[in-house]
User: What shape does this take?
Amino acid sequence: MAFELAEGDNVFDWIIVPVGNARNISAIWKGFKELRAIGLISKLPKMAGVQAEGAAPLAEAFERGLSAPNFIDHPETIVTAIRIGKPVNLFKAVKPISESKGFFIKVSDRKILDAIKYAARKKYVVGLLELQA
Assistant: This one.
């Protein structure tokens, strides 16, 4: 995905990634580092990992300054793709945040829905989230 984002002369200050099992954020970060290593981009973006409030072990650990998250046995969110209480790749997800001086954040389901509507109105290109009604 980093290679697709960096096509042309695209330069990004921030890349915001929904985080469930946390593989995407680490893979995207790896891609940007490879692009910089071969000289196709000159600066790395900062990374932000977004989790839904009801499924936010990494964001909560980040907020509290904890070295390890408290896992969530029964995560709750309408966004099934990130309804993960124990991210499989949690340690890989920390690297992009720390190396880029980024952050994890948690948002409510209401804010997620509002953001999707806003992006649609503005005709922004956004990834599709799997929603459960």
